[in-house]
Amino acid sequence: MMDIAVVMDTQGRSSAFGENTIIRIYSKGEGGWIMKDEMNYRIGQQKTPVGIRNGLKEVGEWLGECKLMIASEISGIYYTYFEGLQFNIWEMEGNPEEYLDYVYHSELEEQKKETVQMKPVTPVLVRDASYYIDLKEIMSDKTLLTSKQVLLPFFKEGKFKQIIIDCDHIPRWFENELEEMNLRAEVQKFRDGMKVTVFNDVYEIVEE
After folding, report:
1. Dihedral sign, CA of 125, 127, 133, 137?
2. How far apart are CA 154 and CA 124, in angstroms?
3. Same domain, 8 and 108
4. Strand, helix or coil at 112?
5. CA 73 to CA 52: how far, in whole Å?
6. Structural domain includes residue 119
7. Do 6 and 91 form a contact (C-beta atoms < 8 A)?
8. Per the domain annotation, does 51 fall within a domain?
9. If 0-12 CB within 10 Å is exposed, 13-18 middle and 19+ buried, where does residue 205 land?
10. CA 86-88-89 angle, 5° bins
11. How far apart are CA 169 and CA 46, in angstroms?
12. Count of domains for the chain
C-alpha cells in the first residue's frame, strides 16, 4: 500500500506549498484512488521561521507514515523541512487523477532498483581518521546510490575526524542532518565545483 499526499488549491488542482493550502492523502485501492484524509494548512499570524516550522511539524505528524508528496512547487523552508523527514517530493501540475498513477508506478520502479545489489561506495581513508570521497564521480553514474545513501551511514557511525567531499553542490539534506549529528562543514568553491570538509569535533573528545 502506498499513500500519496497532494498539496492543492480549492479547485482541486495541485498548488505550491505556502500560506494557505489544502493537503489530501490518497491511497490506491482496488477500484482506484481514494481520498483517506484532508487537512487545511494555515500559517495564520505566525509567519516567522519558528512559527512556520511549528506549523510544519503538525503537518508532518499528521502525515504519519506517508512519505510521498506532490505539489506544483515546493521550495525554501518547506522543501528543506520535508526533505529532512525523508519525503520523496514530486512537482506536478493538474488534477490528482492526471498524475497519481504515474507517480505510483515510478516510485515502484525506484523501489525495485533499490533492492538490486549494488557495489558498495564508501569514503577512502587518507590518514589518521581523515577521509575523502569524490561525490561528483559517484553522482555521474545514475545507477548508483544517492548522496544521502552514501554519506549518511558514514556520518552516523561517527568514526572520523574529517572527510573531504568533492561535489557539484552541497546536498540539501546537509542543513538538517549535520546539525543533528553535531557535525560542521566548511565550503570552498571552485570553477568546476566545490570542496566540502565535514568535521567531527566529537571524535576528538572521545579519543582524548
Report:
1. negative
2. 11
3. yes
4. helix
5. 17
6. no
7. no
8. yes
9. exposed
10. 120
11. 32
12. 2
- Measured CA to CA, the distance from residue 148 to residue 54 in angstroms comes to 25
Q: At 137, which amino acid appears? A: E
In tens digits, the chain (208 residues) has pLDDT values of 789 999 998 889 999 887 678 999 999 877 889 999 999 887 655 567 777 888 888 899 999 999 999 999 988 888 888 888 889 999 999 999 999 999 999 988 877 766 554 556 789 999 999 999 999 888 776 555 788 888 999 999 999 999 999 999 898 889 888 988 999 999 999 888 899 999 998 886 555 4
Question: In CATH, what number is assigned to the domain containing residue 89?
Answer: 3.30.420.130
Q: Are residues 163 and 188 in the same domain?
A: yes
CA distance 87 to 81: 9
| Whether residue 12 is found in the same domain as residue 108 | yes
Q: What residue numbers bound the domain in which 26 lies?
A: 3-114
Phi, psi at 49, each rounded to 5°: -55, -40
Q: For residue 35, give every residue at least 6 positions away whose Cβ sits within 8 Å of its Cβ, in sequence order, or none.
A: 24, 25, 26
